[in-house]
Amino acid sequence: MEIEDREPAKIASLRRQLLAWYARNRRDLPWRRSADPYAIWVSEIMLQQTRVAVVVERYKAFMARFPTLLSLALAPEQEVLALWSGLGYYRRARMLHKAAQYVAGHHQGNLPVSSGELRLLPGIGAYTAAAIASIAHGERVAVVDGNVERVLCRLEGWEAGSRKGGGAALRRKIDDLAAQLLDPAQPGDFNQAVMELGATLCLPRNPQCLVCPLVSHCETQGEHKTPSRPPMLSREVAHALSVRMGQNPENGPGQSGREVLLEQRAAALTVMPGLWELPTLLDPAVPEQELRMTVRHAIMQVNYYVRIRTVFEDDIDAMTVPGGERRWIPLGEAAGMALTGLARKVLTRAHLLAAASRDDDVL
Ligand code: SF4
């Protein structure tokens, strides 16, 4: 049942069944309670490469602090990054912030309406533009993310499940099919329905075909062949955790005025520029008796095995790699700073910050 063989009646039936299923089964997510294009934009950027369960609380906090595009545009970047902490891929936050400033300056604070105009903004690609325009304004434009791609490939019986792996020809076929199936009367709901199906039933492993509303339309009815992923790499690094009694006893409620030493990553770095992290130890081989904790932290295709050693203030210079600007930060302030995900995780696990990150493992 290739694209060209789909009869209009079958397409209509597929749309009906999918939309009915979505109406009954859609998850109650905070961004689905709003038709505000700005709110949809924020949620779509957060959801790129981050799981829904992680995004929900971060989204609520972000929108509570930046309820409008203008409030985001006027905020200092460090505050935006601090609110993004735990979501990773900080470039997304920087681009969102820059685009908000651009819209505030050039569009009187109103996001453009059409997907074509949205795509002209920094940091908004085809997917995000289609999601905002279809959900907020009912534009008939299909979204294609990883979930949609998997669902469509399985419906058609196409083996390659990755647009990268399948190349440009497969990408065109998927885009064409998505456009053909899109419900012209409810494009926003239809787009969300396909994504929801991919996120909840048509899973990469063990798809729930027995309860799938599209089973009668599906060529594959199960897992399909996908290109193998490159294996994760492993790296070992070590950081110093140095805490002292602060100079100002009024710092930080309940923190006894303690301060932690943090170092700012250089602005010219391509990875996490400007974020605050723990100083790097010169010797990654931390003796067992000095080991405070070992944390596993994944960044893109690399699993970092991170050893954390407690270092006294007087030993810091001798034991760590000279880096960017260092500051003793009151613990009460550290939580609100633009910390790297790893720094936040370590401080949380050391009970120096309120619990925040639970994504990776302490070994
Ligand atoms: S029948 Fe199975 S493989 Fe096909 S779309 Fe539904 S969940 Fe996915």
Q: Main sheet?
A: 4 strands, antiparallel
CATH superfamily of the largest domain: Hypothetical protein, domain 2
Present as ligands are: iron/sulfur cluster
Radius of gyration, whole Å: 24 Å
| Alpha-carbon distance between the two ends | 49 Å
Unreliable segments (pLDDT under 50, ≥5 consecutive)?
356-363
- Number of discrete helical segments: 14
- Helical amount: 40-55%
Class from helix and strand fractions: alpha+beta
DSSP strand content: 5-15%
CATH architecture of the largest domain: Orthogonal Bundle
The count of β-strands is 7
CATH class of the largest domain: Mainly Alpha
> Which fold does the CATH topology of the largest domain refer to?
Endonuclease III, domain 1
Number of domains: 2
Shape: globular
Task: Provide the fold topology.
Elements: H1 8-25, H2 37-47, H3 52-65, H4 69-74, H5 77-84, H6 90-106, H7 115-118, H8 126-137, H9 146-156, H10 163-181, H11 187-200, E1 233-241, E2 243-245, E3 258-264, E4 276-277, E5 291-299, E6 302-310, H12 316-319, E7 326-330, H13 331-334, H14 341-349
Summarize this structure briefly.
With 363 residues, this protein is α+β, with helices and mostly antiparallel strands. It is 42% helix and 12% strand.
Q: How would you sum up this structure, described in words?
A:
This protein is α+β, with helices and mostly antiparallel strands and 363 residues long. The protein folds into two domains: 3-217, Orthogonal Bundle (Endonuclease III, domain 1); 233-349, Nucleoside Triphosphate Pyrophosphohydrolase. The protein contains 14 helices and seven strands. The strands form two sheets. Strands 2, 3, 4 and 7 form a four-stranded antiparallel beta sheet that branches. The protein has a three-stranded mixed beta sheet with strand order 1-6-5, with helices on one face. β5 (291-299) and β6 (302-310) form a beta hairpin. The relative contact order is 0.11. Bound molecules: iron/sulfur cluster (SF4). The site of iron/sulfur cluster (SF4) has 15 residues, from α9.
